[in-house]
Amino acid sequence: MEWNKVMRTRKSCREYIDEQITTAQLKALLEAGCAAPVARGKFEQLQLTVVQDKELLDMIDTAAKQSYGDDSFSCTRGAPTVIIVSVQEDQGQIAPNMIASAGCVVQNMHLAATDLGLGAVWCGVHPQPRAEKLVGEALGLDESLIPLNIIYIGYPAEEPEARDQYEADC
Question: Which residues is 93 bridged to in the sheet?
Fold first, then answer.
């Protein structure tokens, strides 16, 4: 897809069809995430965790509901693939530039998803300590890894329309 069309078409997708993305698509998404700019080249401080298991996706959704205190809330909305971007703590803290780096990783994957004809939506976990703990526990992450961002990916139930980039409220 043409680059400007990718940027104009990229929108949050909150409804997905019941079909898993392909291994080739997942590989392309992960490559896009790994191509993102990362502060000081500290890629070793980032971890991408892919979840495609329905039971684990339900656990993540339950963690989100508990975190937000809303049983009707659903992050996954039927997305068959979730990628969690976590950052290694450095002396008990997360460096602000690593928070930005994790955002760049998600943005690259979101744009790649659009280019591949997939839908995606980003959901922040940080800075919500309860959500960080619940998602980390659901994934079995080491306590020094803090989940910052989750991107939900699948085939969209509806095709997004391109928007005029000059009409966006920026």
Answer: 90
Direct distance between the N- and C-terminal alpha carbons of the chain, in angstroms, rounded to an integer:
23
Q: Is the four-CA dihedral 136, 138, 141, 144 of positive or negative sign?
A: positive
- List pLDDT tens digits, range 142-169: 989 999 999 999 999 987 666 665 555 5
Peptide bond into 127 cis (omega under 30): yes
Q: For residue 43, what is the DSSP state?
A: G
Closest CA to 73 of 61, 83, 60: 61
Residue located via tokens 């960080």: 132
Model confidence over 60-97: pLDDT tens digits? 777 777 777 777 777 777 899 999 999 998 777 888 89
Cα separation values, 53 from 20, 30, 91, 138, Å: 10, 17, 33, 12
